[in-house]
Each structure stands twice: as C-alpha cells, then as structure tokens.
Amino acid sequence: MSSFSGVGVSSGRASGPVARVAEALPEPAAAPAPTDPAAEARRIRPAAEAVADRLSERAGAVGGEAKALLETTAAMALDPALLSQAEQLVTGNSLPAARAVHEAANGFAEALRSAGGYLAERVRDIHDVRDRIIAELLGATPPGVPDLERPSVLLARDLAPADTADLDPRLVLALVTEEGGPTSHTAILARSLGIPAVVAARGVLAAAPVVGATVDGDTGAVDTSSEAVRTQAAQRPTEVNWTGTGGTSDGHSVSILANVGSVADAHLAVEAGAQGVGLFRTEFCYLATDDEPDVPTQRAAYAGVLTPFAERPVVVRTLDAGADKPLSFLDMGVEPNPALGVRGLRICFERPGVLDRQLEAIVAAAEESGAQVAVMAPMVATADEASWFAERVRAAGLGRAGVMIEVPAAALAAHEILDAVDFVSIGTNDLAQYVFAADRMSGALASLNDPWQPALLRLIAQVGQAGQKLGKPVGVCGEAAADPLLAGVLTGLGVTSLSMTAAAVPAVGSALAAHPLAAYQVAADAAQNAPSAARAREAAVTSLQA
After folding, report:
1. Are 138 and 98 in contact (CB under 8 A)?
2. Which residues are catalytic?
C-alpha cells in the first residue's frame, strides 16, 4: 500500500479497482519532411472532422452542460484558424501533419495561458483537441477515459472537460488526478455528480503496479494497492431538492446565482434554476477582433446573454484585461510582471473611453433585455478607485455599481470601499492566489489555493462584517461558492449571494437549506480558526453534525 496526499475537492470516501485514463501521445517528431506537403496538409481536416464527429455523437447522447461542453469541444476541433495554421506549417515548413497540429495548437494554448484567469483555464481544452487530432492522424488510441465495464476509481494526470462531460456516476467511484487544482473542471464536475475527488496528488502516477485505490475526498488522502481492494461506493448526497429560492432552513435569504460568459452559459444557468447571474464575464466580446468592438456590437452581444434573465438580477463585470490578458487594441506593451501590472479597472484610468463605451452598451442591452443589471469592476485595490468607478457607472445611467474584491488590500479596506459602492463580490480564485503568492494554474501550489485555507476565510469574514455593518450585499463569485459545504460556511461569514458554474446550482441551493444561519455561523467560526485547510473542513463538518 502506498499513500499520497492531494487536495480533496469533492467529499466522500470510496474504494475499488483502478482504471487509468489514457495520457497524451509523446510529442510528435518534426521529421522526416513529407514527400508531398500538399497531400500531407490535406490529411489534417479529415482527421479534425473525425474527432469532431465523435464528440458530436457523444453530445447527442447527453443533455444540459455536458451536451454544451462536448459541442464546444467539437467546434474547437474544427476551428478554421487552428486548421489553417497547421496546414501552413506543413506546406510552408515541411512538417509532418501531426507535428504541425502540435505546434499550431500550442501557439493557441500559449495565447490563452498568457491571457490568465478564466481564459488560461481553457488551455487544457486546446491540448485535449490537439491530442485527439494527433491520435487520429497517427492511427493511435486517443487520450481519454476508457470504457468502464465495472465501477472503478479513475486515475489520471489531468482530465479535460470532454473527458468528464458524460461520465456515468454509477461506474465512477472516485476521481484522482496528479495535476489540477481546486478550481479545475474536474473539481467542479465531481462536486456536481457527488463523486469523491482528489486533485494534485503528486507522484500517484509513478506508483506501480496499482490495482486498487481508496480515495478520501475530504482529507485528500489517496491509498493505492498492488492488490485488489474492496469495492465501496461513496454514500451519495441526499436527494437534491432545489426549490429555486436560496436560503437557510430558518429563512435567511442567500441568492444562488450563476457565473456566465456566453449565451450558451446563460441558457444552462436558466435550466439549472439559478436565481440570476452573479458574474457575467464580458471578455468574450473583445476576443474575436483586433479592434475595440463598437457600442452596437457590444450591445448585441450583451443582450444575447442578458435576455434569458429578463426581470432577474445580473451582475456584469466590466472588461478584465490588460498586459496579462493582452488585447491588441489596448497596446499595453510588455510588463516585467503583468499579473501585478496594469489590468482590470487600472487600464481605464488612462483609457476612460473604453469603459464609457462599454457602459453605454451595457445600458442599451439592459433596456433591451429587461434584466435587472448591476455593474462591477475587476482589480480594484482602494476606495478611491471604487469611487471613481461608481461615479462613471452612475453617470452612464446605471443604478447599481460594485467592485470585485480580488486583492488583499481591497479586503482590508472593505468598509471604505463599500462606502463608495452599492455591493462587492469576492473573487476567491484570484484573492487566494494573491494572498498566498501562489499561481492558481500551478498544480504544485494547489494546496495553497484551497479555498478552505483559514487565512482566506478570515479575509472573507472581514468583508462580510463590513457588508453587515453598512447593510450592503457581499457576494462570492469564485468557485469556492460551488462547494456545498463551503457555501454554508461562506454564508456564516456574512456572504449574501453565491455565484458558481451552472452545474453546481442545484446541489448548493439544496445543501444550504439543510441548516439555520446560526449553525453556519458557528461552523464558519470554527473553520476560520482552524490551523489548516484540511482541519478547517473537518471543523465545519463536525460543527454541522453536532
């Protein structure tokens, strides 16, 4: 028996036989050069079409978020820019088709990685599409989840969204990955399915031979064995009973909202029963053009997302870009440390017109859609910045202005910031990486980005207290809100709304109704005073079971 420690991201304990997820093929060789480059280039599109067809076939067998995810991945496989770039590398550089796809996809992935945040999390999707097309070109077994004939523990380096979209929870006992982090798609999906999961279990793939495993999604412990272990499924959460109205068992209201970044996301959120949108990412409107989109273009794009939420609240985040999320029309230049540079609201101090035009488009889209729109700014550090933003929002004709709490300075100045705005929303993903100086995309630092870290909970508590004193809303729109247990703790810390991926809405809304506010306040106090993330989760569980 060998023991490994990772980050538990979905509760429960399960054991059983191990099924390894096929890894990507080795990097394809750049030689020999094709004897007929034109013919070699013509192989790429049929291979991509075959991959897209298989993904589309899988999409036809499922619904909801899984269907949308598989359809999106299929569309990514057929991206004209990706295929054209790969073909040019064959005809222009005499690369074999597989190598050309590898290099073209890596270029796209690097652009997303440089963008940071939500966009950087799409790098795994690009790599997945790349590896599937390469496998098709080489006639090899594509990476991904094998066909399961019996309930098994899945062991993988990482899981692409397309790997997990149509997993059968009756056959998947638990998920274990060597890479990934608390905000990864694996974590989100596992929670939504009620499957125990551990990520960042470093070294687990090197253990050999592995026949069986025991996984504890609460503590992050993974025990592997060279012999068979008893198959035991985790006890599934009680039946989800989401009423569509968020709150605790004693009637304390907590809005259960969704994070969206596209029209497809908006429809999924409605299907999940979200009460509104706590984070509408507007970057999608800027990514497909080299020039700043004009007001009519922005209005149409925003209205498409807002319309499904007519008469419901939607919080729109203004453009979150900068040197770490490069957009050509901003011409930000090169910064030595772009993650700590001019980004988010900071780009608007020298380019206020970019913000004013976006606000004009948001106002028009709000009027067209009938949604109850509020606007918030990213990367705010001081009360003066918050006040500057609020003045421009109100001058544009929008009634409610808020800001993101993503840096420690903003959390520490929450009272002064809330004096200047109508609400705040805590981005736990960014706040954690700035608090712990730990890149959230680094699997090696996943434990520091665990949202159960007591230091992070204490900062959230400070913001919650400021909101309560001033009678103003405090939301959480990081993926911490998608953890049903942590959602209750956040409520106990003073959070008044929780915004998450659509898939998590029913489970979180249902779980929150299990206890009264006072119980969550006691659990929150125990968690934030624990010595570690693991002990914080344990303290919350013990408190709520008392």
Report:
1. yes
2. 185, 477
